From TrEMBL:
InterPro entries: Ig-like_fold, Ig_E-set, Papain-like_cys_pep_sf, Transglutaminase, Transglutaminase-like, Transglutaminase-like_sf, Transglutaminase_animal, Transglutaminase_C
Active site feature: C273, H332, D355
A GO BP entry: blood coagulation, fibrin clot formation
Enzyme Commission code(s) on record: 2.3.2.13
UniProt-listed Gene3D superfamilies: Immunoglobulins (2.60.40.10), Transglutaminase-like (3.90.260.10)
UniProt superkingdom: Eukaryota
PANTHER family according to UniProt: COAGULATION FACTOR XIII A CHAIN, PROTEIN-GLUTAMINE GAMMA-GLUTAMYLTRANSFERASE
Organism: Cyprinus carpio
UniProt-recorded name of the protein: protein-glutamine gamma-glutamyltransferase
Domain Transglutaminase-like, chain residue ranges per copy: 265-358
Alphabetized UniProt keyword annotations: Acyltransferase, Calcium, Metal-binding, Transferase
Comment on bound cofactor: Binds 1 Ca(2+) ion per subunit.
Length: 669
């Protein structure tokens, strides 16, 4: 025939083919071609005869969504000749007999999602187009390797960690006694990419906004919580998880995302802050946006949008629980994602805070960010989005007020260093931690820090202005290493900086708290220098994170000054022992055992065990109604791919939460 006929279109989509290798998408467990924008990929087209550039006219057409339009960026034709080009570039890389290899470069701001591909040829009788072939659909993602893409991150090791690493460590506990939990982000597992795109569908996000990383991350921060939009996760801080999975039980994001997408958008129960942050991190890395989970220790959750966390004492210096409304979370996890901010002045690109935990509404919805970390550090909190809220989380002052007999409040002590004490994220490419507090603030007490706080006040953040006399007596509660089930002593250390004798009435309250600082039960209340805390005082009251928050407050008799000390004691749980046997090779059968011995006097019931490992074992769970004193659970698995990875396990029941174990292993090809 005189006009070209198309015999075959090959999108070169196997993991070992040039496209997935060059685009760093070879780890996705997917039968489709996945490429990154602003970087060339190749397809091979077989015609019924050799292609003649001078007379044959053809185009490769990309279509996304139900009603494709060129003006909306949802219909894009790509042409092979230099004279005729569209927003995506095309070129012929090589010709061999009837087969041509075509290179296609998408634009750096193109829509991220799943496209259909057609080849069309101009004939004397009109345009002939290939039939729809679902197997050659193409996913196009953000590209942190391309300088043209707003998510470009110019550091190969950072990219390796914040895009390619499926395993993470999330920090919790307290700043001077940090605990770690391993997490399987699983961004390359089967079905996860579709689930992440489904989240944007569920939000009714216009396709034309899905190439804009600022809009994508802002929509996701609203969609990962179920408040006001039937998003992915239902928050629950009550301690009662009868109708879902306790937040402490999850070991990874995959099960959550697949459940949500598989039910076409039924929110998954339950989450607390690290679960929101971990699943958000999977979403970011999966779509190609550099992401990491960060933990802020002593995070202010302010109820009235100022820089003051108010703790109310009665006239004797004793804590007034009913009137103390603001809460300081022992820690709070959020996400940072990396992007240029063309909507802000220069210098505010780079890492941005996004937070999906529903705390406050922003523009009428529960969402937060993206807020520039550099803007937070410099007090430039007028820039979108939600920078004042993040600024308060790391910079609030803790103010102790004494309530006088007539009901007025007098500021008696200001602690400017307690909140935002430390911000941590996982180190690059190894399991250590990285302290990034200095990304968020200047050193405490430095002139820069003072200028930043003044700048924030100009933008409307109120601070406590009262000057409070420095007390000449200091008190502190030293750190303790306590295992759940131990008796322990809490000691008060006093330091008298005056040259006179000082005596004090001191109250110490120990409160079992949720990590959000919300009290659950009081443990003790006396005024000695040393308090014995017995197991029977706290064991039946402990909530899942096993924190006891001690506040010592008192009044110096001679001067009337108020002294205060705060300490969170995190109890350490027993660990699971995870062991692997068998030959560590791809597709070989291996065994894993999870063992636990109950060290307590009471028996456990309705125990849930979970385990998973990226690339080697999909998540599994086991329910044991009445285990004896020891539990052994054995499963088989066959690794899907080579490389070093981890198996992560958790044990959870109403009487004992947050019991974890893990083991590292390297799989040979």
């Amino acid at each position: 025939s005189c006009f070209l006929d198309i015999w075959d279109v090959d999108v070169l989509k196997r993991p070992q083919d040039i496209n997935k290798q060059a685009h760093h998408t070879h780890l996705y467990s997917s039968d489709f071609l996945i490429v990154r924008r602003a970087q060339e990929f190749q397809i091979k087209i077989t015609f019924d005869r050799p292609y003649k550039p001078a007379e044959d006219k053809f185009a490769v057409e990309f279509v996304i969504g139900p009603s494709p339009q060129y003006s909306k960026g949802t219909y894009i034709p790509v042409f092979p000749t230099e004279e005729r080009q569209s927003v995506w570039r095309g070129r012929i890389v090589e010709t061999s007999d009837n087969v041509i290899t075509m290179g296609i470069t998408t634009s750096p701001e193109c829509i991220v999602g799943k496209y259909m591909i057609y080849v069309s040829v101009v004939t004397p009788y009109g345009i002939r187009r290939t039939r729809r072939e679902p197997k050659s659909d193409i996913y196009i993602l953000f590209n942190p390797w391309s300088p043209a893409d707003p998510v470009f991150l110019d550091d190969e090791e950072e990219r390796e960690e914040c895009i390619m690493n499926e395993l993470g460590i999330i920090y919790h506990g307290t700043y001077d006694d940090v605990s770690e939990r391993a997490w399987n982000y699983g961004q390359f597992e089967f079905g996860v990419l579709d689930a992440c795109l489904f989240i944007m569908d569920k939000a009714d996000m216009p396709l034309s906004n899905r190439g804009d990383v600022i809009k994508v991350t802002r929509v996701a921060s609203a969609m990962l919580n179920s408040r006001d939009d039937d998003g992915v996760l239902v928050g629950n801080w009550s301690g009662d998880y009868t109708y879902g999975v306790p937040p402490t039980s999850w070991t990874g994001s995959v099960e959550i995302l697949l459940d949500y997408a598989g039910s076409r958008g039924t929110p998954v129960c339950y989450a607390q802050c690290w679960v929101y942050a971990a699943v958000f991190n999977t979403f970011l890395r999966c779509l190609g946006i550099p992401g990491r989970v960060v933990t802020n220790f002593f995070s202010a959750h302010d109820n009235d949008g100022n820089l003051k966390m108010d703790i109310i004492l009665d006239e004797n210096g004793k804590l007034d629980r009913n009137r103390t409304k603001d809460s300081i979370w022992n820690y709070h996890c959020w996400n940072e994602c990396f992007m240029a901010r063309s909507d802000l002045p220069p210098g505010f690109g780079g890492w941005q805070v996004v937070d999906a935990t529903p705390q406050e509404t922003s523009d009428g919805m529960f969402r937060c960010g993206p807020a520039s970390v550099a803007a937070v550090k410099h007090g430039q909190i007028c820039y979108p989005f939600d920078a004042p809220f993040v600024f308060a989380e790391v910079n609030s002052d803790v103010i102790f007020y004494r309530r006088q007999k007539d009901g007025t409040l007098e500021a008696v002590k200001v602690n400017q260093t307690h909140v935002g004490r430390m911000v941590l994220t996982k180190a690059v490419l190894h399991d250590g931690r990285r302290d990034i507090t200095d990304h968020y603030k200047f050193p405490e007490g430095s002139p820069e820090e003072r200028r930043v706080l003044e700048k924030a006040e100009e933008f409307g953040c109120q601070r406590e202005k009262a000057s409070v006399p420095q007390s000449d007596v200091e008190v502190e509660i030293p750190n303790l290493d306590v295992r759940v089930g131990d008796n322990f002593d809490v000691t008060l250390q006093f330091k008298n900086n005056s040259d006179q004798r000082r005596s004090a009435d001191v109250y110490i309250t120990g409160t079992v708290v949720y990590y959000t600082g919300v009290p659950s039960a009081e443990v003790l209340f006396k005024t000695p220098k040393k308090v014995l805390v017995r197991v029977e005082d706290y064991m039946h009251k402990l909530v899942e994170q096993a924190n006891i928050h001690f506040i010592a407050t008192g009044k110096i008799k001679e001067t009337g000054q108020i002294i205060t000390a705060m300490k969170v004691i995190t109890m350490h749980n027993p660990k699971l022992i995870v062991k692997v046997t068998g030959s560590p090779r791809v597709s070989e059968e291996m065994y894993v055992s999870v063992e636990f011995t109950n060290p307590f006097k009471f028996s456990l019931e309705n125990v849930d065990l979970r385990m998973e490992g990226p690339g080697i074992m999909p998540f599994k769970r086991k329910h044991i109604i009445a285990p004896g004193t020891s539990i052994t659970w054995i499963e088989t698995f066959s690794p899907r791919r080579a490389g070093s990875t981890k198996l992560i396990a958790s044990l959870d029941c109403a009487a004992l939460r947050q019991v974890y174990g893990e083991t590292e292993l390297t799989i040979q090809q």
